[in-house]
Amino acid sequence: MAAIWTSYQLLLAARPQLMSACFGFSYTDTLKILGKWGPGYHFFAEGSDDEIDILEWILQSKSISVLYTELRKLADQHDFLIVVDATIGTFANIQVLPYADIVITSLSRYFSGKANVTGGSLVLNPRSKRYPTLKPQLESMYEDNYWSEDVLTMEYNSRDFISRMHTINQTAEFLADFLHAHSSTPTTVLKKLLYPKWETRAYYDISKLTSGNSGFGGLISLTFTTMDTSRAFFENLNCAKGPSLGANCTLACPYAILVYYTEQAWAQVYGVEPGMVRISVGLEDKEDLMGWVKVALDSAEATAH
User: Fold this and answer.
1) Cα(first)–Cα(last) distance of the chain, in Å?
2) What pTM was estimated for this model as a whole?
3) Which residue of 50, 191, 277, 292 could cross-link 238, Cys pair, CB 3.0 to 4.6 Å?
4) CB-based burial of residue 82 (10 Å sphere; 0-12 exposed, 13-18 middle, 19+ buried)?
């Protein structure tokens, strides 16, 4: 959150107060920041090829200050900045700096893992043509107010970050493959599976690291045929329940209800259904997690029939 706020303040200070564009359905508070503390924004929730065409049409007559995505070609052509939030993909899985002017991420999530300390990071691309402007501006704004014990805790937690992400990648892909196959069965209650291996794979592969143990991350989102089946699945999923993600333990939450409780109708327009269940896969044994998911699916399917 601090990284999102700081990057936006940096851009407002470094450039005239132009509107922004948010490409893809972002972290909820990103839109709040763009709307409340700036001159406004264009929102392209689907992040699709068609919306790229719409954005390009807008750029023919309007200037954009910052685009929260990896659309490097348009940025170079129309002279706007790109900020990418890499929190969900993580530095262990993707390399987006070549496509961005700034990369931001929450260190409170996967990087820490233990959910006992908060922090964020902001990285300037030294090859960006805006770097000579952004770096001195950032230096003039920067305050070193990170509490020393928080720094020590974050560093200690992060020592096994790469190995933890390798485990999470493997387990999440194991579960996602099962859910993807199950979604095609005649009795399925699953409506949609949102996971990079099966959604927008071509885009993900562009930034996916080719070396090491990179994968598709640990976040899986599911929608269901009815609210009753969604409720049955969630209530019978035997993992910790909570709003965060990236913890060492698996967390599930009714995402739309929790995050967009007063804006559910608005969120549903963009495909975030009230019955969506988000699972942040942790470090538990993958067979245990599979057992939990199967029990939850059986309960949901029993509700449907």
Assistant:
1) 43
2) 0.88
3) 292
4) buried
